[in-house]
Design a protein that fits this description.
177 residues, 4-stranded antiparallel sheet, 8 strands
């Protein structure tokens, strides 16, 4: 009876060990809308359908021309389905009208730069070219050609800056008591 119990315990531990190893190994699945293509900084490619109420409108992504609507836009994002921070606070997609009485349409998505929230990559983007612009303009966006350290010229608004030492040249000397 002792030998049978020992064999059953060994088999039970072996099965439990294999089950734990299988759970820990897991498998890497591709999120919905993603392609198996890998991008820079450990990102993966997502396909986003971009359409507009007027076919043929000019589409730009982050200031770069990507084509005329309708089109499929490839966006490199994080594995959890959110936009990746490539150095700007927003990922901007714009549609420019062909006719009069139509308006420029803008979609801005947060990238999570400096611990700000990040948005999920949509499966499709639709632009209604007849929709008037917002009453409040969107926040400033990083435009290529500006210095890399900010979205435009820096302006400090706040209390006056006070130097931490009463006399700046004392910080280079060692005090000996």
């Amino acid at each position: 009876m002792q030998k049978i119990m020992c064999g059953m315990n060994a088999r039970m531990w072996l099965c439990a060990g294999l089950a734990v190893a299988g759970l820990m190994a897991g498998c890497e699945s591709v999120p919905p809308g993603a392609q198996p293509e890998k991008g820079p900084h450990g990102t993966i490619a997502y396909s986003v359908q971009v359409t507009a109420s007027e076919p043929g409108v000019r589409i730009e992504a982050n200031g770069q021309y990507v084509g005329n609507a309708p089109l499929t836009l490839k966006i490199f994002g994080d594995k959890d389905g959110t936009f990746h921070n490539f150095g700007s606070y927003f990922y901007v997609v714009q549609a420019f009208p062909l006719n009069t009485n139509e308006f420029v349409q803008t979609r801005m998505y947060r990238t999570g730069r400096h611990f700000t929230p990040e948005d999920y990559i949509p499966r499709q983007i639709y632009f209604d070219m007849k929709q008037p612009p917002q009453a409040n303009p969107p926040p400033p966006v990083y435009v290529p050609g500006y210095p890399y350290y900010g979205p435009g010229p820096g302006v400090y608004i706040g209390p006056p800056y006070v130097y931490p030492y009463p006399y700046p040249y004392y910080r280079h000397y060692y005090w000996h008591w």
